[in-house]
TrEMBL record:
GO terms for biological process: lipid A biosynthetic process. It holds the Pfam family Metallophos. It comes from the Bacteria. InterPro entries: Calcineurin-like_PHP, Metallo-depent_PP-like, Metallophosphoesterase_sf. GO terms for molecular function: metal ion binding; UDP-2,3-diacylglucosamine hydrolase activity. Residues 161-341 form the Calcineurin-like phosphoesterase domain. Keywords: Hydrolase, Membrane, Metal-binding, Transmembrane, Transmembrane helix. The chain crosses the membrane at residues 34-54, 66-87, 114-137. Gene3D superfamilies: 3.60.21.10. This is Calcineurin-like phosphoesterase domain-containing protein. One of its GO terms (cellular component) is membrane. It comes from Epilithonimonas hominis. The keyword Membrane applies.
């Protein structure tokens, strides 16, 4: 641990000295030195103090969010500035080498003020986006309308409306009232059915307790169903003993039940209209290791007619390619979440990009294989970075035909 801290300290010191070259080029004075180094020392002092005194077993997620936010606001933009400086330094070195060989000019080129200004400005813009994502971005919930024609959908279910939410991560929010607008937006959709596809908490069932009243306001004419996500199992938490950990899932299921959600654990439910049936399947988390693989589609589909129209809730989209799309049960629509779109990226109508695509090729929106669909919800809440830049929190509204 001590060696790691020393290594990081040395790395950050090199980064700061390097980035200071841009600051010095623009503002070279004694006041400029103080303006740069005093806040820098204070910030790093806070970071290292917070890291050394952080107690994972305290169940307090706010302190982690503060530390992570400071790193993203203060350190990440400096990496961007360093990229500008590095590109300029490579060009300066090449120019010097050429002039040294081809001319009598052996003077090493000085930094250009313009490049330093561009670098510092870009870093400031990135820091602004990160800060905006924390203060406002995570509350910019958007309802996305998805119209789908499903194979074998009974005629009585044409126009049926399903709302999907996913990845609430209630422990990442301090005040339930700040999410009231999102709950109102869900109810505005006048859903027939509400499906929650996992990760109601970060680790501990108690995180959801302050949000029970809020989420109990969500209305679905035919009910509200839920499945477990990887965070709901509490595998990332610190527990006093094995019994406390074992009791976490039953407590979470009970808390979600108080909010009106029925948990499906490798099982299914039938929605019936005038004798016609729509099957809702829910499996436990199934992800690529190290994520748990508790999902059992065979068990969830026991007794379901092969020709029936089925909608599957499965938290991790990896399940679709690995199991669902080639499974004989023939699921027409799979609903997932998990990726959050990494809470950072570009999410336009005709162009989407996020670094998470390198881990999850199917990371957001609708994907089709034959007559089978996968929809990956961008998530309702946040984890790690307590904000969103470019990829907004999502409420998905499916209109079936």
């Amino acid at each position: 641990m001590q060696k790691t801290v020393i290594f990081l300290l040395a790395l950050f010191l090199i980064l700061e000295i390097y980035v200071y070259q841009a600051f010095k080029t623009v503002y070279n004075s004694q006041n400029g030195k103080l303006l740069y180094w005093i806040p820098t020392i204070l910030v790093y002092g806070f970071l290292f103090y917070s890291i050394f005194t952080y107690d994972r077993g305290s169940h307090k997620y706010l302190s982690f969010q503060v530390v992570f936010s400071v790193i993203l606001i203060f350190v990440l933009p400096k990496l961007l500035i360093a990229i500008f400086l590095l590109i300029e330094d490579i060009i300066r070195l090449l120019n010097f080498g050429y002039n040294y060989v081809a001319t009598d000019n052996h003077v090493y080129p000085s930094r250009r003020k313009f490049i330093s200004l561009v670098g510092l400005g870009s870093g400031a813009v990135l820091a602004g986006f990160v800060l905006d994502g924390i203060i406002f971005g995570k509350y910019r919930h958007k309802a996305r309308i998805v119209r789908l024609k499903l194979k074998n959908l009974p005629s009585n279910f044409k126009g049926y409306k399903i709302v999907q939410i996913s990845d609430v991560h209630s422990g990442s929010f301090q005040n339930p009232k700040n999410l009231q607008h999102a709950i109102d937006l869900i109810n505005k959709q006048n859903a027939d059915l509400v499906l929650f596809t996992g990760d109601m908490v970060n680790n501990y069932a108690d995180e959801f307790v302050p949000f029970i009243d809020l989420f109990s306001q969500i209305k679905g004419k035919d009910g509200k169903f839920a499945v477990l996500g990887n965070h709901d199992y509490g595998e990332y938490g610190v527990w006093k003993n094995i019994d406390e950990r074992k009791n976490n899932i039953p407590k979470l299921i009970e808390n979600e039940k108080k909010a009106g959600f029925e948990m499906l654990r490798n099982e299914h439910r039938i929605i019936e209209r005038n004798g016609e049936k729509l099957y809702i399947l829910g499996v436990e988390n199934w992800g690529i290791p190290p994520f748990p693989q508790f999902g059992d589609l065979n068990k969830a589909s026991e007794g379901v007619p092969a020709e029936a129209c089925k909608i599957l809730m499965s938290h991790d989209p990896s399940h679709f390619d690995a199991v669902v799309k080639k499974h004989p049960v023939d699921v027409q629509l799979t609903l997932s979440g998990h990726t959050h779109g990494m809470q950072f990226g570009i999410d336009l109508k005709n162009f989407r990009w996020s670094p998470v695509k390198f881990k999850y090729p199917k990371w957001a929106d609708l994907y089709q294989t034959g007559d089978k669909y996968l929809y990956v919800n961008r998530g309702f809440g946040v984890i790690g970075y307590p904000g969103r830049v470019g990829v907004l929190p999502e409420i998905t509204v499916f209109e079936l035909s």
